[in-house]
Amino acid sequence: EPKKRGEERRGEERRGEERREKGREEKRREEKRREEKRREEKRREEKRREEKRREEKRRQDKTRQDKTRQDKTRQDKTRQDKTRQDKTRQDKTRQDKTRQD
């Protein structure tokens, strides 16, 4: 009878230890899952930041191109105006000269 009780106690202790080990394993798995989630979130965050940087660069490039285009248009217009004024001046000079003759 006492021998049986000792075996039962050892069996209960073993089962208790198995339950505790199972609990510890579950905690380790849970921690691994949380760690993986954190890493995944970090990757997503880095991707978002990278995309923002690319978008900002595209925006700056577009602004720069637009400014260059505007400058070129302004220069062309100035050149045309100057040419028109020169032509008008030459025509006027030619007319004045013709009148004098």
UniProtKB/TrEMBL annotation:
Protein name: Uncharacterized protein
Taxon lineage: Eukaryota, Metazoa, Chordata, Craniata, Vertebrata
Record region (Disordered): 1-101
